Amino acid sequence: MENLEILKLFPEAVFKYKFEKFNEFNPKLSEYIYNLAKEDNLGVTKSNRGGWHSKDFDLRDENSIQRKFTLEIQKYILNSFSMLGWKSENKKIQILSMWAIINKQEDFNVIHTHPNSHLSAAYYVKAPKNCGRFQVENPNTLKKHIRPELVKENELNVMLAGIEVSEGDLIIFPGYLPHKVAKNQSNEDRIVISFNIDIKS
Predict the structure, then answer these.
(1) Do residues 118 and 175 touch, judged by C-beta distance below 8 A?
(2) In what side-by-side order are the strands of the sheet with 48-49?
(3) In whole angstroms, what is the distance from residue 34 CA to residue 40 CA?
(4) pLDDT (mean) for 169-188
(5) Which of 21, 32, 124, 130 can pair with 185 through a Cys bridge, CB separation 3.0 to 4.6 Å?
């Protein structure tokens, strides 16, 4: 139709980066995470159904691979702030918590959010083909109240969007955004590091 303008007024941003040093960091991160799993094979249960969820990483050791990783990803966090139009100057931007999840075949994560964090993130240490897409649910729950039959899904009507992931991908998104992980349908481990980001004045 002529003279039509579609105004997308309230978009939800999910930033997908490729960590430029993933080939260097991932083998060391993988070793660190598998060692944690050996030391604490029970882990914790949160959104994971099956799989192994670590306790929070110890980020105090400046020489540790996990601490070095946090320093390397700061520029991606700052870029996300810039894209969102958020002030970062004279702000203390900190990683509140960081942990790992190992999903084996058939393991998945149910829908959840990350309360009390401005941004959350998922970094893929190991992501074989068909290991489970990162899925985001439309946070506008009012759209579920009445839903006409669709001819086809598009960005104006979709309620669930999936993102294909590969090793070295870093996904940064608002902590309030409902998300989940599809079943790992490969026969290899899917290893992800997740973390929350907060802002202090």
Answers:
(1) yes
(2) 48-49, 108-112, 179-181, 134-137, 160-163
(3) 10
(4) 98
(5) 130
Segments in the chain forming alpha helices (H): 22-39, 65-72, 74-84
- Residue spans per domain, the chain: 15-133+165-200
Handedness of CA 54, 46, 173, 185 (dihedral sign): positive
Beta carbons of 48 and 194 less than 8 angstroms apart: no
Query: What is the rounded distance in angstroms from the CA atom of residue 189 to the CA atom of residue 146?
Result: 39
Identify the three-state secondary structure at position 69: helix
Q: Report CA-CA distances (Å) from 25 to 32, 91, 98, 144, 172.
A: 11, 28, 16, 42, 19
Is CATH 2.60.40.10 the right assignment for the domain spanning 15-133+165-200?
Answer: no
Report the alpha-carbon distance of residue 45 to residue 39 in Å, rounded: 16
**Separation between Cα atoms, residue 183 and residue 49, nearest integer Å:** 9
**pLDDT tens by residue, 88-140:** 999 999 999 999 999 999 999 999 999 999 999 999 999 999 999 999 999 99
pTM over 0.85: yes
